[in-house]
Amino acid sequence: MNALKLRIPAKINLSLDITGKRSDGYHTLRSVFQTVGIFDTLTLTKTDENTPLSLTCDTEGIPCDARNLVWKAAQKLLGDDPCGIAMHLEKHIPSQAGMGGGSADCAAALLGIRKLCGLNVTDAEMLQIAASLGADVPFFLRGGTVLCEGIGEIMTPLAPMPARLLVMAKGEEGVSTPAGYRALDALDTPPAPHTDAVLAHLQDADADTFFAACGNDFDTVTGLAEVQTIRRIMRENGVIPILSGSGAAVFGGCSTPEQAEHLAEELHAAGLSFTEICRTTAEGITEI
User: Fold this and answer.
1) Closest among 158, 161, 142, 45 to 103, alpha carbons compared
2) Looking at the predicted structure, is the pLDDT value of residue 174 above 90?
3) To the nearest 5 percent, what fractions of the chain are helix, strand and coil?
4) What is the share, in percent, of the chain residues with pLDDT greater than 90?
5) pLDDT digit string (tens) for 263-279?
6) Are residues 130 and 209 in the same domain?
7) Catalytic annotation, residues
8) 153 in the same domain as 21
9) How far apart are the C-alpha atoms of 74 and 223, rounded to whole Å?
10) Which domain, by its residues, includes 210?
11) Which among 230, 235, 240 is positioned nearest to 208, based on CA atoms?
């Protein structure tokens, strides 16, 4: 095998409850992570074993050097000066969205390099490497529906839920995750938790009942103008808006394709830079 192409799903947080703060400054959480059908693509090609690693991307502004988690993944598996692999990344998952795009691409690089180079790295070792690269990276080695606890490293795979119809939207603005955590820490009363309700309703046939159980602590402290616009339009269309991660992407669950199409048209007409209809998926990173 000389080349490998991987399809990489984004994620949303069906729930995100911040449960505490450790002495090292990291926050603990309970969150139901869910992969969704918005995909990046990573192509890996073998080169001469002495040829330095190369990384290219079809999207302007994405770093293609050691700042990129894809490059850091290669260093973890191939050493500080990796050689023998050329990688090309096609981006469709928006950045600074809370949809895990960078972490997902990183996990794909780990899986792709291990397979393409025939490395003797166990799944347990891959999880350890993934956790060292970012709290969300281990999730993307699995995908599907997963309860994440601790700082995200304690994962409990859950039975796949019925495919849910979503509209995702994001403007140009991004969210500072550290600032979001500081704002949550400053609250006198923490937001009500949602994870137990999501777990109780995962298999509900009725979409409205399920999405009414979803929620995210960061919704309480995220007030960007574009996020507020998305929330308003979703509510005007009878859809509950839910932030993903620390934002700035917002998703809304729809009961019918007609509702989703109308909502997407309204969001697009508002000038938002990213609006897409998709479904939740049990699919993780796959070869194509």
Assistant:
1) 142
2) no
3) 35, 30, 35
4) 89
5) 999 999 999 989 999 99
6) no
7) 11, 136
8) yes
9) 37
10) 165-279
11) 240
